[in-house]
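Give me structure tokens for this 178-residue protein.
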Amino acid sequence: MTTIVRETKETKITVELTPGKGVARVDTGQPFFDHMLATFARYAGLDLSLHARGDLRHHLMEDVAITLGMAVQQVIPPTAARYGERCIPMDDALVQACLDVGGRFYYRGPLRNKLYDHFMRSFSEHAKMTLHLRILRGKDSHHVTEAAFKALGLALRDAMVDSGTVFSTKGSVALEVK
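Here you go.
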């Protein structure tokens, strides 16, 4: 299990994360955001306990994204399959997520809701993953956002499968900081 606590003047976030069955206990004080985070955990197959409070919705969502991204980065197996792609239909929405958990950040969206788009960018940056989200169809913002979290979760589940080998022509990367 990985536990990360992030505290600033604006927010306090506690995340406990472990690969599991997708059981989530989430409390941010923002019901729709709680629903999206629990949905992500369920579809990713990650057991998540998350408690967060903040002064502004923007600060809260950004700091949750940072903390959750850092926790996800910690639970990715060194011999992960690395790549994942899923496309989720949800009523009028059709959203595709493609990702690489190989350690390099890049984000391409956008989601229509600026706060949720910023969440995805901050999450992928701190998870050290490349994430492309494409809205293929959809008018209802709720459905588009939820389809994006489901697609992200399932793509991450696929990428985190332990393949038993390092998926890189570079092999393992050794880094020493002095």
